[in-house]
Amino acid sequence: MARPFDATIKHLVESHPADWLALAGLPCDGEIEVIDADLSAISAAADKVIRVNGPFPYIAHLEFQASDDRFLDERILFYHILLRWRFKLPVRSVVFLLRPKALGNVSGCVIDSGAADEKLEFRYRVIRVWEQPVAALLNGGLGTLPLAPISDLGSKSLDEVCQTLTERVEKELPRELKEAVTATMILMGLNHPNEMIQHLFRGVRHMKESSVYQAIVEEGVTRGRVEGRVEGRVEGRVEEAKVLLIRLGERRFGPLPSDAQAILASIRDIALLHAMIDRVSDASSWNDLLPQPNA
C-alpha cells in the first residue's frame, strides 16, 4: 500500500527499534524483536509491530499518520484486537502524528457505552511529532533522528537543525541508512516550499560533497513528488477499504454482482467507504449498502 515516507520510517524502526520504543514512552527491559505486522487474513496490516520480551512481555504497535483520517481511532482499535488475538500478549498501541494536519479527528480513545453492564473503553498513546523538543531528537537515538526537522524547533533555526542532523548522519550512520534518512528529510516538503528546502541544504557546511546532499538532488525534493506520494497513500487506503468491504459484504450478502462491482470501482471517497463498512451489519443487500447511480 503506497504511503508517503512509509518505507523509510519502517526501515528506521527495523534498524533501531529501541529508539522508537523510547520515543513512544514504552518500556524496553528485554530482548526486542521486530515481527511481521501482516494481518492479511483479515485484510489489514499495521505499520510496525515490535515484540518486547522480558519479565512482562508485550507487543508494541506503532502507527504513522501524515494526514487526517476520521476513522483512525477505530482502525487502531481494530489492529489492537487483531494483534492481541494473534500473539496472545498485551498490546500497546502508539500513533505518531507527523504533522498538525493529521490531528483532525484523533482522540486517542474509543468509548462505546451500551447497557449498564456493557461498555468498551480503549485508549492508545498519541505522539505529536511537531511538539517533540528538537534537542531530544538531535541528541537521541539514530532511528528517530530524521524526525528532528519536523519537531518543535524552539529557538533553533531550520538551518541549524539540518546542519546538526547531517553531521550526525555523516559520522554515525552506515551508508545504507543515509538513504533512509535522506528520504525522511523529504517529509519537510509537506510543511515547507521546495525552494526553502534546497536553500537550507545548500547552506549546510560541506553539503555538496556529502552523499546525503547528492541523494536529495537525485531524488528530487519537489512539492509535486510529495503530493504524488500523498495521493498514492490515499489510493492505497481506498483499495484496502474496498477489499475489506467486499470480504465483509460477501459473507453477509453473497458474491458481489457485476453491476455492484462497477459502482464500487467508481468510488474514491475513503470516508464513504468507511461508512459503508460500518453499515454492513445493518444493510439487507448489496443494493441497500452501495450508493445507487441515480441516488
TL;DR of this structure?
With 295 residues, the chain is of the alpha/beta class.
Could you walk me through the main structural features you see in this protein, from its secondary elements to its overall organization?
Strand 7 and strand 8 (119-123) form a beta hairpin. The strands form 3 sheets. This protein has a 5-stranded mixed β-sheet with strand order 1-4-5-6-9, sandwiched between helices. It has a two-stranded antiparallel sheet with strand order 2-3. It has a two-stranded antiparallel sheet with strand order 7-8. The chain has helices at residues 6-15, 17-24, 72-87, 134-138, 158-172, 175-185, 194-203, 211-219, 223-253, 258-266, 270-279, 286-289, and strands at residues 32-35, 38-39, 44-45, 48-52, 58-65, 91-97, 109-113, 119-123, 125-128. The chain is globular. The chain is α/β, with parallel strands linked by helices and 295 residues long. It has 12 helices and 9 strands. 47% of the residues lie in helices and 14% in strands. The longest helix has 31 residues, at 223-253. The model is unreliable at 221-228 (pLDDT under 50).
